[in-house]
Structure formats: structure tokens, C-alpha cells
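Customer ticket, subject: "Can you confirm the structure for ABC transporter ATP-binding protein?"

Message body: Hello, I'm evaluating your service for our small team and ran a test protein. I'd like someone to confirm that this is what the system normally returns, since I don't have a reference to compare against.
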Amino acid sequence: MIMNTSVSIKDLSLNFGAVSVLKDLNLDINDGEFLVLLGSSGCGKSTLLNCIAGLLDASAGQIFIKGKNVTWEEPKDRGIGMVFQSYALYPQMSVEKNLSFGLRVAKVPQAEIDKRVARASEILQIQPLLKRKPAELSGGQRQRVAIGRALVRDVDVFLFDEPLSNLDAKLRSELRVEIKRLHQSLKNTMIYVTHDQIEALTLADRIAIMKSGIIQQLDDPTTIYNRPRNLFVAGFIGSPSMNFLHGELTKNSEKTVFRSNGVSFSLDGYDTAQPLQPGRKVVLGVRPEHIKVDENLGPEMHDATVDIEEPMGADNLLWLKHAGHTMSVRINGARRFKVGTPVKLSFDMSLASLFDAETEERI
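Agent reply: Thanks for trying us out. I re-ran your input and got the following:
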């Protein structure tokens, strides 16, 4: 299926003095796609969003929205609606006036303003709040109003800059569902910045993971999680993080195996297009839920000892001592283990990851 490009970024760079924040960045965002820019603080994700919005001028490169070169256009002329981390509502105005303010400034006819405000308030379920002032609203209600203010502009592209980070965990979860429902209803292009990987994995059609102004991997959430392109992505996604074992590939009875701290691990089931050359220094990565405790997944089991147990309700997180490594394993919350208990581990190599120790790229 051929996708129409909604936002296209070509060779974009941004420098603050001698500091390079974005580096020759290229990114095409499909029409109607929900794209999440994910990364830790300082990775360049908000800077990229601000360049798309026109709040920052690029040092080099071009930005296209709906095929139009908007690199030097004013924000109001780019056909975007933006929702910030801060609600930025006018405290003296009612919700209704906050929603309509931009339209009134743009001299949109009153009948059209009323129509757009009614539609946005219905979609966001804030009709009963229209006569209230921001001080009379909860944090979640204020953020709904902020989203509604972008919604009334009736634009093709919505930009979200960490809109939920000021809310508590319960509200974040609730509004996450609302934003996903909003996207499914409107089918507009949405670009969403966050450092929260749960938000990214649950909301995105695709995730762009950023580090030092460079996109490390651009893929759908399942691929990002199960087949990370490099060691950085593998360690960044997942809580707790992927387990990493450093070692090398060796030959054992005509088969190539992974060896670490004197222990050999069968690679049966590992999917790679590259030949596994003996002698290569590698890092084996296995997620906590892809290790079984006292359950045989394959041709071998390994000895380990329970070091710490963290009951988490539905899940139980075990920290195990194994062959000189400390490993995290996620098991069913109904299973309990005492500290010091010897256990057997089995690894699902079909879901494991191998990385070259030098390049840190996936093998």
C-alpha cells in the first residue's frame, strides 16, 4: 500500500553556537500516522518538534508539510496545532473563550467558531466545563482544554510536546486512552514527544528513538521492542531493562554457541541473516519475560540463585545470580521464591538479541 507523506524532513540540522543538536536528520511521516519521538532529556526530540512547528529556525535542511516547503514559514501558516507540556490557558477566560480565542483573533465567522468549539468539546467530553475558568478545573480537564484549543484549528497535523508529564500516573493513563481514541476518530497526523516509553509503545504507529540528535531506530512498537537495532535501543526500551551478557561466539560440536564467564549458551532458534562467526566478541540480550524459571524452553537449562524478589501484583520480578551476572526475570505474580533459592533458567533464543561488541549493532 502506498502511503501519502504528511510531514517530510530533509537533511535537517540545528546548531546552538558550536553545539550540534540535530544532525542531518531525515524523517517522513505518513498521512494519518501517529508518530512518537522518544528519548531521554537532551536527545533533541522537543527541538525537532519545535523546528516542525516553526518555533526554532533550522540551521540547514528543509521541512515540508503536505508537500509545501514550510522551512521559513511562520507557525500560524504551517497548518499545525500544538499542545504543550504546560497548559498555557488564559486564567481570566472561560473554557469556551480559551477554545475560541485563536479563531477570534483570526477573524473566523462566529457561526464557524461556535461549530468548531461545539465539535471539539463534544469529542473531548468537556461540554459541562465551557463556562468555567481554568482555576476551577483539574489537571486532566485543563489538558483536555489545551488539546481542544489545538483541535478547533481544524488542521492536518497535531504536535504534542510531553502533554501528560505534569499529570499523576492515574490521569496519565486515562488521558493516554483519550488521545488514542482521539486519533482513531480524527485520523489526523499526530507527532508526539515523550520520554515515557509506556506512552510511546501504547500510542504510536511508529516510534523514532533519538539519541544526541540522531534517530537510532524508526519502527513500529513491536519491532522496536523485539528486534532493537542496536545496544542503545535495546537498553533504553523495557522496564526493567534487557539483560546483557558479554562474551564471544565459539564452536561447540559443529555448532556456534555463545560463551560468557565460562558458561556456554545454545543459540538454537536465534534468527539472523548474518553468519555467526566463532571468535566474534558479542553481547547477548534477553528480556526479563523471555527467561523461564524452572520451566524448560529449549535444549539446556542453567543454574541460578534468587538474590532479590520484587512482588508487583500481576507480575513478580526476580533478580538472580547466574554465572557472574545479575539478571532480572519476570514471572507470574502467583509464583513466589525465597531469597537464596536455587533455580534453573531457560532462555527463549527466538526472542533474544545479539549485538556486535565493537559496533553495538544488531547481528
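A couple of notes from the result: The radius of gyration is 25 Å. Residues 169-186 form the longest helix (18 residues). Feel free to reply with more questions.
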